[in-house]
Amino acid sequence: MRIDINCDLGEGSDLKSCIRDTQIMPFISRCNIACGAHAGNRDIMRLSIFNAQKHHLKIGAHPGYPDRENFGRKSVKLPINLLLDSLFQQIEQLQSLTTEAGVLLDHVKLHGALYNDAEADRLLSKEIISLFAKEYPSLKIIGLANGAMESVAIEKQCTFYREGFIDRHYLNKEKLAPRNLPGSVLNNIENCLERAIALAKGTDFTSYYGTPLKFSVDTICLHGDNPAALKIAKALVKHLQHHGLNIQS
Hints:
The protein is α/β, with parallel strands linked by helices. It has helices at residues 17-24, 42-54, 80-101, 112-120, 122-135, 148-155, 189-201, 229-242, and strands spanning 2-9, 30-34, 58-62, 107-109, 140-144, 160-165, 170-172, 175-176, 205-206, 212-213, 219-222, 246-247. Helix 2 (42-54) crosses helix 3 (80-101), helix 5 (122-135) crosses helix 6 and helix 7 (189-201) crosses helix 8.
């Protein structure tokens, strides 16, 4: 059995931050590189691509709201044409650098508040998926398992990877618990590891409310900005292997 592990990277403020990202890369199979709007810049993107190539990772775009002050984690009220233009420019910038490096851009995954807003607003999902389908038909789309983006992507016949989170509680099988809910972020590594197994194998785990949930995913997210990300990544590889799972894109 195998499972894909993706990680949001290139979100640091300087090139030194790429060193920490590089330490995580041996333990994942796919990276989502910030495109300069919520975090990152052209130099960080270029170095992140170079490092990802060395570790044979699939490389994807990680666009978000153009709001560096809040790290893209607050909703921004933008006219839809301006939002779509921002997403296009972000992906274009990263794609120009992957082309420069001689590697194909593989996928796209929304960041932060935009990820959540697209799940909460089906019309927004349709606008964003339509942009991806028109401008980047070869890119896979990563999004929340069982959510609005998945449903719209299926309608548009786009390749969609169902994503699960090992460090976040779920309200139900379609919704993550908001970060402002006490205890919504899982900090205990053992709990994160058990969640990873449940998502990879499609076995039971517990919702935020204590009710049982059960569904499987195509890819599991490890948040690169988590202070314990490297420690979790190392433990995750060993734990998955112990349960007969290999990390592979």
